[in-house]
């Protein structure tokens, strides 16, 4: 769609250029040379002087005409650059209303990247065809919901923003964060970093959030202008309708960034397994809600004006009775008796009882020696020796010993699961190595920024989700807060 402001940019500058070209010295300057020469001859009659003046004037005329031509060339060149550039502060128009750059960011919790290759997501396919799709996006470690939703909107690794799990203990506060305890978990003391809606509000850009994990906390008192707090009842169609209602607000009230969270796919993946038909049907249904949003944008003539970005926080692996690690068979009675807290499921993050910190060495050593045996299905690290790729060391919220099962494997005790006639639940699990294949998340986006930066239909190189915050900031023309992104908001195409 051509917008009013773009149209004026296109029409005005070439018109100005052609006026400049019409005013070339062909009429004015040559006449000046002729007139000037005649007057000079009549006044002095001196042939040589007249010739010298004539040459001077011709030189001046040539310089003038060159300048005019150069100016015209620069003007026209500048206008073509301007047409090709992305203007985060530009005003677009859908034919009836002005729009500032606007972005709808939607998270489909637990959507595995390879779901997009199954032909059951026509609307996600349509967004990718009109925009870009990452080959895959790596979550941050650990690949669970709260840490990754916060990394997506702050650009920080969990060890930096502090939400290191869905449930974790902070030995400094001597308190436990639990995402299910709304009252306790919204306290700002847990949440580091600056989410994109706070970056926006601090720079006078209106924001709106639907149920995004962390949205009900405040940052020095700053909150999104519009907020729908979490509930487990509102379906994805209703969430998309809310998004469209916000777009119908007058310019001055309308949010420029909307973050919406949809948990349906994750819930089905856990319950039935990531590739069960019930889970894939749930995905197809959620994709239908995206279609509802796309239709709503089309009706409003906003398809080429409003940005859409659809992401997931992590993938999902299939669990089974054949993939259980009985850690009470690995640790002896003394070591087991020293364990105070076991955190970070499916990780086995171990804290010994207060006053028994010395037990860490023994617990670690027993787990480590077992991990070297053939057929062992996990790796184990002390907090201070976590591999750098995990960015999971620099906070005491990480337990002193962390065992990471291979994807699809689960730590249990015989007390927790000892009946082989039962099926291990949940059927789908995530939280493993963030670079493992099944952990991969989706990234699909379209809009004027991607048209300009990458072009339509591009596949992007894989990237870690801490890059997304800078992309959001670029789209909206915001000064980003300090973050762990490395690409400055410019994702890279595979070509
Ligand atoms: Zn999740």
What attributes characterize this protein structure?
495 residues, Gyrase A, domain 2, four-stranded antiparallel beta sheet, Alkaline Phosphatase, subunit A, 3 domains, binds zinc ion
Describe, in plain words, how this protein is organized in 3D:
Residues 1-49 are annotated as: Disordered. GO terms for molecular function: nucleoside triphosphate diphosphatase activity; ribonucleoside triphosphate phosphatase activity. One of its GO terms (biological process) is nucleoside triphosphate metabolic process. Residues 40-49 have a biased composition (Basic and acidic residues). The chain has 495 residues and is an alpha/beta fold. The protein folds into three domains: 4-83; 91-318 and 435-476, 3-Layer(aba) Sandwich (Alkaline Phosphatase, subunit A); 324-424, Gyrase A, domain 2 (2-Layer Sandwich), CATH 3.30.1360.180. Helix content is 37%, strand content 17%. It contains 15 helices and 22 strands. It has helices at residues 4-22, 28-44, 47-84, 122-130, 145-154, 158-161, 182-185, 196-202, 236-247, 264-272, 277-299, 333-337, 359-371, 448-453, 468-476, and strands at residues 92-93, 98-99, 102-108, 132-134, 137-138, 167-170, 175-178, 207-210, 226-228, 257-262, 306-311, 317-318, 324-326, 339-343, 348-352, 378-382, 401-405, 410-412, 428-429, 443-446, 458-460, 463-464. The strands form seven sheets. An eight-stranded mixed β-sheet has the order 9-8-10-3-11-20-4-21, sandwiched between helices. Helix 10 packs antiparallel against helix 11 (277-299). The chain is globular and about 100 Å long. The relative contact order is 0.16. Mean pLDDT is 88; it is low at 1-45 and 73-83. The structure holds zinc ion.
């Amino acid at each position: 769609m051509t917008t009013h402001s773009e149209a004026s940019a296109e029409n005005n500058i070439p018109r100005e250029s052609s006026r400049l070209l019409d005013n070339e010295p062909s009429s004015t300057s040559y006449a000046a040379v002729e007139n000037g020469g005649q007057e000079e001859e009549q006044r002095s009659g001196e042939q040589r002087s007249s010739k010298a003046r004539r040459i001077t004037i011709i030189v001046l005329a040539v310089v003038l005409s060159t300048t005019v031509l150069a100016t015209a060339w620069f003007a026209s060149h500048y206008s073509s650059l301007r047409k090709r550039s992305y203007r985060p502060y530009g005003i677009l128009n859908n034919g009836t209303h002005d729009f500032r750059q606007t972005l709808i960011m939607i998270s489909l919790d637990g959507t595995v990247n390879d779901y997009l290759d199954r032909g059951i997501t026509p609307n996600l396919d349509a967004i990718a065809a009109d925009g870009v799709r990452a080959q895959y996006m790596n979550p941050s470690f650990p690949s669970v919901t709260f840490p990754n939703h916060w990394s997506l909107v702050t650009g920080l690794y969990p060890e930096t923003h502090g939400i290191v799990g869905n449930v974790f203990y902070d030995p400094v506060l001597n308190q436990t964060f639990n995402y299910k305890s709304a009252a306790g978990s919204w306290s700002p003391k847990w949440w580091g970093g600056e989410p994109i809606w706070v970056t926006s509000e601090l720079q006078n850009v209106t924001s709106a959030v639907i149920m995004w994990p962390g949205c009900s906390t405040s940052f020095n008192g700053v909150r999104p202008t519009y907020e729908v707090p979490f509930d487990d009842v509102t379906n994805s169609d209703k969430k998309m309708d809310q998004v469209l209602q916000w777009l119908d607000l007058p310019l001055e009230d309308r949010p420029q960034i909307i973050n919406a969270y949809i948990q349906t796919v994750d819930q089905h993946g856990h319950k039935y397994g990531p590739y069960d038909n019930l889970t894939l049907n749930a995905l197809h249904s959620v994709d239908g809600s995206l279609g509802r949003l796309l239709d709503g944008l089309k009706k409003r003539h906003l398809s080429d004006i409003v940005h859409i970005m659809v992401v997931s926080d992590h993938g999902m692996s299939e669990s089974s009775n054949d993939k259980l690690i009985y850690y009470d068979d690995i640790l002896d009675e003394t070591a087991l008796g020293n364990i105070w807290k076991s955190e970070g499921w499916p990780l086995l993050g171990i804290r010994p009882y207060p006053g028994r910190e010395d037990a860490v060495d023994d617990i670690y050593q027993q787990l480590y020696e077992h991990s070297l045996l053939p057929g062992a299905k996990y790796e184990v690290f002390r907090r201070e020796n976590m591999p750098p790729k995990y960015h999971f060391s620099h906070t005491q919220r990480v337990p002193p010993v962390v065992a990471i099962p291979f994807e699809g494997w689960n730590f249990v005790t015989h007390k927790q699961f000892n009946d082989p006639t039962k099926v291990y639940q949940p059927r789908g699990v995530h939280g493993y190595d963030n670079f493992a294949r099944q952990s991969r998340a989706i990234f699909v986006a379209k809009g004027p920024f991607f048209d300009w930066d990458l072009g339509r239909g591009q596949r992007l190189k894989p990237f870690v989700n801490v890059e997304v915050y800078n992309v959001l900031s670029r789209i909206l023309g915001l000064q980003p807060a300090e973050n762990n992104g490395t690409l400055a908001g410019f994702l890279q195409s595979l070509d």
